[in-house]
Amino acid sequence: MDSKKILILTYYWPPDNSSGVQRWGYFAHFLAKSGLDIQVVTVNPKWASYKNQDESFSPLVKDIKTHTTKTLELLKFYSFVTTGNSSKGIPRGSINDQGSIFKRISHFIKSNFFVPDARIGWNTFAFKKAKKIITDPDNTIIITTGPPHSTHLVGQQLKKVFESITWVCDFRDPWLELYSNANAPQYENARKKNISMEKMVLENADQVITVGPSLAKLLQSKLPPNKQSKVSYFYNGFDHYKMDKIPLIDPKEFIITFIGLIPDDYHVEGFIQALKKFTTTIGSRNVILRLAGNISQNFINELSNLPTIEVDYRGFVTHLESLKLMKSASLLFTILPTQKFDEILISGKLMEYLASRKPILCIGNKKGDAASLIKKNKSGKTFNNDETDEIANFIIACYHKEFVISQQIDIKQYSRESTANALGAFLKGL
């Protein structure tokens, strides 16, 4: 197996700062470190539609042979028209169609004429580049990772040209069930096309991998019984080298920290009502609600109306800064979207939350993968959005330091290095 070449096709790559970069940047780094021949095909950053950029991931993959291409898409144009900036308005997932007629029309066009997603314009360039690189298909493994799930269509094309190639398809998120797809204003023809594409990719890929057990189970349900065994999962993990270098701080203030994404359509009402109840119990200790990432302005405005709570919105922060914020918090908060099949959802930051050894308040499916990980590692509690009293009581318990995390629980199995080693063993067995 060591003589085989592994070619990763991914839209997101440094200097972008997405879950895709973190998952495959670390995988590529540790796989190459173990002696595997790793190459990457991605988009040239000058052409890519990246919302946020973070150069701190570039050193991680500096030794990975990377091939970049052009792309042809309209997301930068959309961003410039709506915000006056070519990156600020690039959507994560679906286009927010609230407000202008231009946004509503753009959302409709994207949903019906750019199936499965708006980055499908990269496929032609990615296919041509990968086709040139592949010189020994019998000894080559290609890995396509999505979102954007349009990247998997490149894998489908390559599999047709090189029948003996081994194709591994990575689902970081679901396809049809992804909220941007599930809620899209699509005509029946576009929806059927999406269903057909997902079915084709799942059935034709030699192996399918994903981020957790519930999403693996969902993908298996879409395959005939004799093909379900080709679905496996590998957690994203956390960078224990970075984590270990950052001191664990017990702040004087009570700091509730959120890092990640909260769009306008997330159900945050229960959390806000719980905070209102919590504020009636606050003693002399100052309370700070610290937010970092892409956060709905409506949510920030609602929080700003709460008495005795200081809202500290940091906006986009680097990966290293986000880890420092985690390890200096009193309580970490995460919220997952409410949707069908929401048991599959694992926040991109959850593994790092676990590694920070700070209490975690999770609002989401109480029987989902995120809840299971939190419970298994005795790291916090998960609540439904409408459990206002229970959420408030947990915040109060953390405020009074009645809920603490044991530093003795072993979470090394969730490190990026451990998950990459597991993936490496899997690839060597193909």
Major sheet strand order: 3-2-1-4-5-6-7
- Give the percentage of residues in beta strands: 15-25%
CATH superfamily of the largest domain: Glycogen Phosphorylase B
Do you know the CATH topology of the largest domain? Rossmann fold
Summed up, the helix count is: 16
Instruction: Please mark out the parts with pLDDT under 50 across 5 or more consecutive residues, or reply none.
Output: 76-82, 86-90
Report on the architecture of this protein.
- The chain has 430 residues and is an alpha/beta fold.
- The chain has 2 domains: 5-237 and 417-428, 3-Layer(aba) Sandwich (Rossmann fold); 240-399, Rossmann fold (3-Layer(aba) Sandwich).
- It has helices at 19-33, 75-83, 101-113, 123-133, 151-161, 179-182, 188-204, 213-220, 240-245, 269-279, 297-304, 319-327, 350-356, 369-376, 388-399, 416-428, and strands at residues 5-9, 37-43, 65-69, 140-146, 166-171, 207-210, 231-233, 254-262, 287-295, 309-313, 331-335, 360-363, 380-383.
- Strands 3-2-1-4-5-6-7 form a 7-stranded parallel beta sheet, sandwiched between helices. The chain has a 6-stranded parallel beta sheet with strand order 10-9-8-11-12-13, with helices on both faces.
- Helix 5 links the parallel strand 4 (140-146) and strand 5 (166-171).
- It is globular and about 70 Å long.
- The N and C termini lie close together (8 Å).
